[in-house]
Amino acid sequence: MTISPDVAAESTRTPRTQRLRHYAMTPPTYFTVEYAINPWMDTSTPVDARLALAQWENLRDTYVRLGHTVDLVAPVAGLPDMVYAANAGLIINGTAVVAQFKHAERYGESVAYAAWMAERGHDPVATRHVNEGQGDLLVVGSMILAGTGFRTHPHAHAEIADLTGMPVISLELVDPRFYHLDTALSVLDDSTIAYYPPAFTDHARAQLRRLFPDAIEVASTDAYVLGLNAVSDGKHVVHPAQATGFAEQLYHAGFHPIGVDLSELLKGGGSVKCCTLEVFS
Fold first, then answer.
1. Which residues touch 129 (CB under 8 Å, ≥6 apart)?
2. In a domain, 176, yes or no
3. Which structural domain range is residue 255 located in?
4. Is the pTM value of this prediction over 0.85?
5. Which residue in the list 180, 236, 239, 275 is annotated as catalytic?
């Protein structure tokens, strides 16, 4: 990547600070595409299980090299999407909210992740309405951005606000390719986001521009490879390797982009963030 001296100097004037994180991940031991519940899934496309595991292990090892804590959740046979740990729920402010999935194929994941939460000493609670965890519930500083339109029910947003004691900002998605908020928006630090405007309603875009006037707006080329399904520690941003334009935008903004290949797991409609549940202290 070629960066002009002026841009590089500008980046150094806005240094980013790493904060060590705590993640939970589930190995793709049973990952396959045996049903289709989002536009990315095609049951006629074979999955290379060995490659999927190797790519996932590289993602886990990347977090460890950066100094982060990674807990492993045991996979369960018959739950091929359990690798997408971000959907498991939301753990913050002493509250562990377990996911309530929309599709029956994923119901068993709620049971498995609730058991894991309980083993860690949490008292998992469920919402009455559909919520798909950090797929649609993204913490930005002292607020939660909450997606709706395809998976999480808007009524669950008020439940999440009551359970966590945090303000929740509802954002409606309109493009089925971006069925979860974490496919169209990435949290970079406590005050910075990146997002793909066409994935949202006019109202949602207006809210985002009001709350984050300096947000990074990505192009379709990067959004269509789920480039925004990324994980940031405030300085390093681990993102799908194919999102090269987004990587350059991150560099210009003072972040350190780290591309990883999760092409096999993309066959199920998920990438870096989908595989990563952040545990907030």
1. 100, 152, 153, 155, 156, 159
2. yes
3. 20-278
4. yes
5. 180
